[in-house]
Design brief:
disordered C terminus, 522 residues, alpha/beta, seven-stranded mixed β-sheet
Length: 522
């Protein structure tokens, strides 16, 4: 290391230490990342390194030397049954025992954020311990647990799952979530038409109207792709339980398209295939470093106790910028069109996604036994620094077409993203007086093949950023530079995305209950 390198590193560390907008915990996390980035990155080819430098492909700034998986989903069911030698905890017997046990586990689960990205299927985990509690006791104890989740793990990428079955705990959780008005946990309700009663979906919509949560996911579709033992984590990422994702590498389709000079019909075979391989090379290098060099699976207590297993892991191949990619390619062909508005643009977008899916599935990836030795395609929700690039496969903010056209455009993509895809629907605030309309939209969306249905309310305090939430008041504090006032580390990221992606310009949809069905009949 040269003196100039040391000086540059010192300036970076000093900037973190002296940053008045960071809390103590946020400083510690930033310093850890800075220390890791002093190390050499896993070796890749010059072509891969050049694509990474240009950010056509991206390592998501996970750090130069991966030493923990990006996302881990411990088997909390097994832990509650067997207890934990590492934590010196016996199997819980009461509701308070169970929540204490889980909080102790969460504090010792590694991930890219420094916080747990998955709290588990909380209703199913806690339901057996609720039998001896009356409704008021259950509500009060769950409320205390819910508040601790937010105060101990202040990061909106910390995710909990509910459903698809009804029960006392899922109902209490939705009621508590409306009451405490927190961004943590990020919440998903699994919906299965054969299991989930409409009244439970309606109760979820009451919570959406209050706090823009939960996400609703198409449970049968996720089971088809991942099996019964899956969790929805972080933003909206679906992964195997007792496993997770080693890494997430993304490909900027818009940037790749700018390197394409031939006809649009040749994009997938020529330019796209080239960058898919470079992204896969980067992914493979990072996985091998984590498993072979850093040896995470050789020394983790979660592995020793059977709560994580290498053969339950995969990797995530993310994409962004589909809308801009399509627009650029159509301009090259001299037949302009907009994704979400023109049929020929939609057809090109769907063909790109189908081709991309086949490429990712055909490319072998080490240590991805959970998904038959290949990575999973992921519609990545973007970075706070993205400018002029639409998240994942979404329609650009502010240009969303009428609701049914919007859903009809994006729904075909959802079949190809087993590890997660999300499209955000902003509803006019009048939907709070007609929640059945929101239920109809959710059910109609899933009938079209959507994997994830995510709502926010126009003008609400809770803003859906990508797949996570932030409060408007917290975003304003970050933008105003108020020192040490925002507890949630995710709020800083939210402020960047809110400004750069113009998230407050989303089109608000106002729909009567019958309109989605009428569109489907057309």
């Amino acid at each position: 290391m040269t003196p100039d390198d040391r000086e540059q590193i010192g300036r970076g560390v000093r900037a973190i230490v002296d940053d008045p907008t960071l809390t103590y915990r946020q400083r510690v996390q930033a310093l850890a990342i800075a220390a890791e980035n002093v190390l050499d990155s896993p070796k890749v080819s010059p072509e891969c390194a050049a694509a990474l430098e240009e950010r056509v492909i991206c390592d998501m700034y996970e750090g130069a030397a991966p030493y923990r998986p990006r996302y881990t989903l411990p088997d909390y069911d097994l832990a509650l049954r067997q207890g934990s030698r590492f934590l010196e905890l016996d199997p819980p017997r009461t509701f308070d025992d169970a929540t204490t046990f889980l909080l102790a586990m969460y504090a010792n689960v590694p991930s890219i954020t420094g916080y747990p990205v998955w709290f588990g299927d909380l209703d199913r985990l806690l339901e057996p311990f609720a039998a001896d509690l009356d409704d008021d006791e259950l509500h009060q104890r769950l409320r205390r647990f819910w508040v601790l989740l937010d105060r101990l793990f202040p990061d909106a990428f910390a995710h909990a799952n509910l459903g698809p079955a009804d029960g006392r705990v899922v109902r209490a959780a939705l009621a508590v979530h409306r009451e405490v008005r927190q961004v943590v946990p990020n919440l998903t309700l699994r919906v299965d038409p054969a299991i989930t009663p409409d009244d439970l979906v309606l109760d979820a919509m009451r919570t959406v109207a209050a706090v823009a949560q939960p996400h609703l996911v198409n449970h049968p579709l996720l089971v088809r792709d991942l099996g019964e033992r899956y969790g929805v984590v972080s933003c909206y990422n679906s992964l195997p339980v007792a496993g997770g994702a080693h890494t997430l590498v993304r490909l900027n389709l818009a940037a790749a398209a700018r390197h394409h000079t031939g006809p649009a019909a040749r994009f997938t075979a020529d330019t796209l295939a080239w960058y898919v391989e470079l992204a896969a090379e980067l992914m493979e290098a990072r996985i091998r470093h984590l498993v072979d060099d850093a040896g995470f699976f050789d020394h983790s207590w979660l592995v020793r106790e059977g709560l994580l297993s290498l053969d339950r892991f995969t990797a995530m191949f993310g994409v962004v910028g589909l809308a801009e990619c399509v627009g650029h390619l159509l301009d090259l062909d001299g037949r302009p069109g907009r994704y979400g508005h023109d049929d020929h643009a939609d057809e090109l977008a769907h063909e790109i996604v189908r081709s991309l899916s086949m490429m990712v599935e055909d490319r072998p990836m080490p240590y991805c036994e959970a998904t038959d030795g290949h990575a999973l395609l992921h519609s990545q929700a973007g970075l706070e620094s993205d400018v002029g690039v639409t998240a994942g496969t979404r329609i650009p903010v502010g240009s969303e077409p009428p609701l049914y056209r919007h859903l009809q455009t994006v729904a075909p993509n959802h079949a190809f993203f087993p590890s997660g895809v999300s499209d955000i629907v902003r509803l006019d605030d009048t939907v709070a007086h007609n929640l059945q309309a929101a239920v109809d939209i959710a059910k109609g969306s899933m009938s079209l093949g959507m994997r994830d249905v995510t709502f926010e309310l126009a003008g609400g305090e809770f803003v859906r950023i990508t797949g996570y939430l932030a409060r408007r008041s917290d975003i304003a504090q970050v933008i105003d530079g108020e020192p040490d006032t925002v507890r949630h580390s995710s709020s800083t990221l939210a402020a960047g995305s809110f400004v750069h992606a113009h998230l407050d310009d989303r089109t608000a949809q106002r729909v009567r209950s019958h309109e989605l069905d009428a569109g489907a009949r057309r």
